[in-house]
User: Fold these one by one.
Assistant:
Number 1:
Amino acid sequence: MSLRSSGTTCAVRGCHNNRTKQNMWLKQECYDHKPLTKSQCSCPQWFSFYRMPTAEEDRRIWLRNLFLKKPPKNLFVCSFHFVDKKPTAENPYPTLWLGYYRPPEKKRRKLHRKDTNTVSTDECGDTSSEALAYCDAQTRDGSNTGRP
């Protein structure tokens, strides 16, 4: 089952929190208050979303912290990225786990292995099993002398 985004997604690079994940989490049964779901019990939510502020200076600081040159029309940041789990007077900007401290993932190059089990008739001349064993032994030790 794929989790398709509902439109409300965290704008931080590498963060995959969205409204669909939050709704699925709220429908689960709470472990502490067993018959109740997590939306019905008094436990705190897993995460919540906060809009970018409307004040111009605050907007610039948010965009600078998030490294967003072309922000989306509706920008949301989840509570994981705030010091107090929400914007407060002391910490109004997202500062935690913003995605650019982690080095980029290195792509592994694909190795192409040659098949060593097949021997062509050009190398040894004969393709019988006895001749193949001789040819393998000959190429291992580097001697190219004839048969003993």
Number 2:
Amino acid sequence: MGQKVSGLTNKVTRSVSSLFSHSEETQESALATQRATPFVYKRTSSMFFDEEGDLAHEFYEEVFDAGHSRMKRQYKNLRPQGEVELPYPKLHPDLPIVMCELEAIR
């Protein structure tokens, strides 16, 4: 995930810096990096599948000890859900562009 973030940041930074320079080489690289977007469409899920295919953040099983029952958290046999699509795009948190500036209220 960190490589995706740094790659996106480098692309956006290069495309923004190319707006202020006028060399032909920079303009060509700017055209190539215009496809980079400041939006995030997927994220890594924090949920897991268990052996039965159920999906949840945590799984517990009931354990009986000397006449008492307690819930014990399961850590084994869980698979991560992986990447999930976001319902709507979000701005990347490392976007190196000032979106708006506010003046101080006096």
